[in-house]
């Protein structure tokens, strides 16, 4: 995707300012209105007993990719809050870099819908996700950036 | 719930042995066959820009509560792998202790279904979740404990 | 559950007035603010090649039970619209009477969450469901009653 | 999509043989291994009080499109059963022809994943869906064709 430099800069600033996002080592690779690519290098402490990346890390990454895609598609003053997140786990995620591409499916006046795909370094599809967001002018909600 | 001491001990040992689970500060509070209560004290680095607990942390906690509930309901040698996770975010999660109760809805020969509820220290319901698991004798999968 | 006669009467009138609801043979068995029990006798034309009730019929029934539960919990002039529906199919549904109990999980100013369980005549759990609804004063949406 | 004549013929025969599928007026428009396009003309009795197509009809159509896509991707003797269905309703569905395109996302040895999109006659996206299926050699389950 061809990135929009203003959106890319804005999302990178948000990620840098959020302790949770920055702490994950999240990188915003590409961004334009309604579509965002993120990646992170999974850390040893994100693995389970079998040495695989925990599904919660992938769920978090998918939520971020979709949330930032919604963010990039709405006006400055508005807020987005995840109200519903669904993830399908297709394959075990071995340690290494994982990337998520999130995109909006529809952005309405009150509600936005998005989807995401997560792939490993070899572009194997690890997980797919869908999300529903309330888009509002007010503050609040668990995932508002 | 009245805990089964053997199951409680087994799940605590698993959590202690998994870098991801232990790193979250996850505590297994109660456990019996098919039902598990977990909690964690959310850390500053799990918060977003508004100081709220990120939805990914709650998704992770819900997945763990459901996965361990399935774990507690199947025989020793079998494996469980999350194939589908759905979370509804009902209220913003303010910093502090959050608890999840996971329980199995049905454990079949190939597939198990579970649900979870997450509450804050004041017992306010923050999120609900559902999960689908493949139950197998083979190794593998993103969330197998 | 103990029904609220006014709510029961209101929902029965709505079901009778809707071609789709009435055509299914839907019966409102119980209703109070935030909880509704529905049932229907599955017809031969609702079965698939193996003679089992099609999952789409159960999804429809779950959506109706949750939608009417939301309906019973909001004021007269407001509308509810399903924006998200999730169903887990636990067991095959053999022909006969199926019942759904829907209840609200949280009704907010913009969004409502609900869940439902579907059982057969022997009270075996066939399916569970969750739903997200936009609650508005305006007309519209695919499932508004 | 370019159809595979053998698969198209097989799916049309299945739809014709199933009382539920045939009763809906379901038409198989295109089909190849892993992808299926269906459509139906919504009937007056599929509408709710506002004259919109009920969300249950769209959920049913999405389940069928995904189920037949899985069917077209597995060997003759195997069975598929829907275990999880998720639908997002993006826009109200006005009366008229609706089409669903279902496709497999991953078909494993035990589990298959699929997604679907539903559009109206003007190609407006009305709903998106995801599904999880158990794929087995044994008979049974609510949606096995």
- State the end-to-end distance of chain A: 23 Å
Give the helix level of chain A as a range of percent.
10-25%
- The residue-averaged pLDDT of chain A reads 92
What structural class should be given to the helix and strand makeup of chain A?
A: alpha+beta
Topology pattern of chain A, helix = H, strand = E: HHEEHEEEE
Reported for the largest beta sheet of chain A, the result is:
6 strands, antiparallel
Q: Strand fraction band of chain A?
A: 35-45%
Largest interface: A-B, 47 and 47 residues
Shape assignment of chain A: globular
- The total of beta strands of chain A comes to 6
Oligomer: homotetramer
Please give the radius of gyration of chain A in angstroms. Answer: 14 Å
Can you list the strand order of the major beta sheet of chain A? Answer: 1-2-4-5-6-3
* Low-confidence runs of at least 5 consecutive residues of chain A: 139-145
Helix count of chain A equals: 3
Task: Please describe the topology of this protein.
The structure is a homotetramer of 145-residue chains.
Chain A: H1 5-17, H2 19-23, E1 27-32, E2 35-41, H3 55-71, E3 79-89, E4 97-107, E5 111-120, E6 125-136
Antiparallel strand pairs in A: 1-2, 2-4, 3-6, 4-5, 5-6
